[in-house]
Structure formats: structure tokens, C-alpha cells
From TrEMBL:
The active site is at residue 294. Signal peptide: none annotated. It comes from Triticum turgidum subsp. durum. InterPro entries: ATP_PFK, PFKA, Phosphofructokinase_dom, PKF_sf, PyroP-dep_PFK_TP0108. The record marks 265 as: Important for substrate specificity. This is ATP-dependent 6-phosphofructokinase. One of its GO terms (molecular function) is ATP binding. Its main location: cytoplasm. Keywords: Allosteric enzyme, ATP-binding, Cytoplasm, Glycolysis, Kinase, Magnesium, Metal-binding, Nucleotide-binding, Transferase.
Amino acid sequence: MASHIILPKEEEEEEEVEEGLGVAVEADHDSPEPPRYRHLQPAQKALPFSATCVRISRDSYPNLRALRNASATSLRDDDAAFAKLDEGDYGYVLDDVQHLTDYLPELPTFPNPLQDHPAYSTVKQYFVNADDTVPEKVVVQKNSPRGVHFRRAGPRQRVYFEPEDVKACIVTCGGLCPGLNTVIRELVCGLSHMYNVNDVFGIQNGYKGFYSSNYLPMTPKSVNDIHKRGGTVLGSSRGGHDTHKIVDNIQDRGINQVYIIGGDGTQKGAYEIFKEIRRRGLKVAVAGIPKTIDNDIAVIDKSFGFDTAVEEAQRAIDAAHVEASSAENGIGLVKLMGRYSGFIAMYATLASRDVDCCLIPESPFFLEGEGGLFEYIERRLKENNHMVIVVAEGAGQDLIAKSIPVADQLDASGNKLLLDVGLWLTHKIKDHCKSKKMEMTIKYIDPTYMIRAIPSNASDNVYCTLLAHSAIHGAMAGYSFTVGMVNGRHAYIPFHRVTSTRNKVKITDRMWARLLSSTNQPSFLSKEDIMEAREAERLANRLPVPAGSSEHTKKHSASVLSNGEK
Ligand SMILES: Nc1ncnc2c1ncn2[C@@H]1O[C@H](COP(=O)(O)OP(=O)(O)OP(=O)(O)O)[C@@H](O)[C@H]1O
Ligand SMILES: O=P(O)(O)OC[C@H]1O[C@](O)(CO)[C@@H](O)[C@@H]1O
Ligand SMILES: [Mg+2]
């Protein structure tokens, strides 16, 4: 990494810049030549921000080492060996993804077939610069280090597979989500139309399908219409991840590109598969495409299907509002998905404006007494005669467990099965109103599976298409990664970054404050709750501590870290 500033060159300045003055010549992405930089001593040229930049030296960042270790310390110790951290100037850290050449250094490369593609070859700078990276944090201060970056997604000039040698497979795992079929479709079509890859198979019914079902040949024709349907044409499942059996099958069948669509559990599985592939020294690229309606995957801006879910949730909220407002003291209660993260509930509430109270897993609440939910319901009904409550499925689980003690049950993947907070709340509210001799009507609507099962909307369709294309470009270029949008740009993210934490609504952030001010609901939080939330956030944002220390262990056991507010 150069130790001085590299600025993109303004086109009109090209002739003016003298050799050795510190401005990079913009890469010619259509030529096979690697980008050429002319480095200059920044002080010699008065560029708009170079004066500030040059004063910042590496030594300005005593925490640079800690920053560089950001990923490594959040890894399980046995995974730390896979972290690829590259340090640059001014506190820049590249948290890089795995590449085939990390363990197969002699692999040949080939020109990207896109350069002869009638559609793409006309695009100026269609290929991304090999050094392009995307910052994890875009809000910075004057003296901030440049921070952690991820490799930018997109087509490279050289690829590591010849089209006729590629044998690709696609698998979908975990719960349903709008857009699954669009991603499948665009993987099949993108491989064929962009890279002339026509040997593509679907793995049926999730991970276990690798070793227990027939593989389904897929062509652009066979997937042509599937994006108009909800669900996944491949089927999905929980459990059944047997790394060795899966990789045995990948190896036996000569598969060399594996596209894995699924949530946090699925991405953990993808990481295990990658590690085993690498251990066996196989020339196989693993591309994870994060899917979850809960939007709880770390690092990425949002997961596909989330917008569709929020939009569809409006229909249930509207119905609840109609029911509530057509009755005397009417209450409409809507349950939305969100096992650990209340994003759908929060966004659906903010979008609707008819919601009087939103309850999410991240924000504890209580029923009885001053400042509790019952008091708020009584007040709201007095003021407005009706009210709408939105509750995320993971909210209030501790309260339910206290009133209905039952042993925890797990699904096949080991996820805790939730008790029905909507039904429980309905009964609690009814009992309370009865005890107060209050006439009321409550209608409980549970649209959760209806929302999850619809096809994706237009914007999610485009998002799914771009994710699929980014995944294909990355796999063709020999990387193994989870693909995702980070601050609006597609990036290749190391598996460990998306599997070590979970994205959660931060109740100390402005988005949750906006929600509270839009519904006028009480925060239900005690001073201790607020302190606890702030402390959790402080710990989450703190620069990492060395692996192995007791603080490191404590941080690992805290299940929740979260994305920054947008
Ligand atoms: N730690 C893990 N290691 C390997 N495989 C895993 C791990 N966790 C989950 N899996 C596998 O990933 C698949 C999907 O996991 P899970 O049911 O938790 O759904 P998910 O991918 O998190 O999606 P969602 O929660 O959005 O429905 C399952 O087949 C499961 O066996
Ligand atoms: O009933 P299933 O299919 O196991 O899935 C339910 C879970 O899946 C999700 O839709 C995604 O994780 C959660 O919101 C929900 O708790
Ligand atoms: Mg999950």
C-alpha cells in the first residue's frame, strides 16, 4: 500500500498534472492493463483536501493496531487464521475475503468473457478496479481513521474459471423470504447470459439436499417465470448441515461454484463448507447471498425481501385499523416477524402512521402499573376510541415465559421456538379490560407467513438481481464471500463478519426515537434499562481487545452487536 495519498484524477486535469505530483491516473477498466498510479508528494500540489490529509500520519492513530485487529478479535480463535487484514495509510484496513490463490497459488487466469459481450463491452469502466474497496462507516470526523473496508463487488478483468469448466449449484436454506426465486433466477440467467456458464444445478430442500436428493438441472428457460412466485422453487429446510457429507458431494460431482442463499445460520454453514473445501485444497468458490426477512444480518444495509415485507405488512395494519376504528374501544393487534430484531415492526409502524404502539424484542416492556402498556391502552382508548398495536414475534418472550412456564423448544437448526406473543397479549388485554369493567373489542391479526410467502416487489427484484450478479462476478473471480450492500455499494464481506454478530434495532439510536415520537407510546424503559442499552452499545462499538483476555470472552458471550444507524 502506498504511503501517500492517491486521489482519483479529474479527467480535465489529465494534461495539467505533472509526473510525480501525487494524483492517480484513473484506471482504464476496459483495458487489460492494471491501473497505473502516478504518486506525488501531496504537499507539492494544493488539492482540495490534501492539505488536511497529509498532516495525518500513521502515527496519529495509536489505536490502529486495535482497528486492524477488529475482525480477528471478534472471531472464534480457530477461525482467526482465515482473517485477511490489510493495513493501509491513515488508519485504512481492508477486511478481505478468501481467494482461491490463498491456497492454490499457481492457478491460471482467463480474460473475462464480458469484455466481448455485446451489452457490457460498450459500458465505460464496466470492470471494477481490483483495488476498489467500500468503507464500513461513512460518517467520519476530520481526524477519524479511514477505518474498515470491504472489497468492492463487481466484474474483474481476469477470471479464474473458463466458462465451459464451471459447474455451479444453488441452494436455499432457512425460512422463506420474498425474492428467493428472483435470486435463483438471476443466478441461473446471469451465469448463462454474462459468462456462458450453462452447467447449473439446484440443490433441493436446503443443505441436506446436497447428500439426500437428486440435483435439479436449471436453465434460463426453466427459471424464466419463477420470480413471479413466492417461496423457493428449490425448497428449503432447517437443520441437516453435515459439512463433510456436503463437501464430499461437491467434490464427487465436480462442482466448482456453490451459491448459498440463506440467513445467519446458512452463512455459518457456508463458512464451514468453505473451510472444508480449503482444507481439501479444492478449486471451488463459495458465494453466500444473505437472506432473511428479519433484516438481522450484520454489516449489510438491508436484506432482500425486507422492503416487500414492510410493504405487505401495511395491508395487515390497515385491516387492523379499519377493525379497530369501526368498533367502540376497538383494538387492532398485528403480529409481524422478527425473532430477535424488530426491524419489520419498526419500519411498518413508521410507514403506516396508524400505529399507536410498537413492541419489539430489543425494547423491554411491562404491562401493569404506571408507565406500563395497560395504562397507555386505557389512555389511548379514552383519547381516540381505538388503537392499533404492532408486536414483533420475539417481543415480550421473557414476560410470556414468566406467565406460562414451558421448557424451551428448538427447531431443527437449533433456533428457539417462540411463544405466540400476539395471542398472549390479546388475552392479557382482554383480562385487564374485564377487570376494569371496560367495554372493548380486540382483533388479533397474524399475517406473518402470508407476508413471508409473497413474491418480491419491484425494488427488491432489482436488488436481488444485483446481488446475484455481484455473487457471480465474485465467484468467477475466484473469491469466497458473503455478498451484500454496504453503504449503498455492493461488497464482498468475509463470512466471519456476517456470522459473528446480529443486526438489531438500537433503542438508543434516533430511528427508535423517531418511532416513539410518531406513536407517542411510552418508552417502557427504566433508567436501568437505558443505562444497560447504552452500555451494551458502548461495548459493541468499543475497539476490540486482544483475543483470549477475559474482556474478549465477555464480548463473545454478548449475543448482540449491531449495525450503525443509517
Ligand atoms: N453454526 C452452524 N454451522 C453450520 N450450519 C448451520 C449453523 N447454523 C445453522 N446452520 C444450517 O443453516 C441452515 C439454515 O439455518 P437456520 O434454520 O438457522 O436459518 P437461517 O439461515 O438463519 O435463516 P432464517 O433465520 O432467516 O430463517 C440449516 O440447514 C442449518 O443446519
Ligand atoms: O416457522 P419457521 O419456518 O421455522 O420460521 C419462523 C422464523 O423464520 C423467520 O421468518 C426468519 O428467521 C423468523 O422471523 C421466524 O421466527
Ligand atoms: Mg436465522
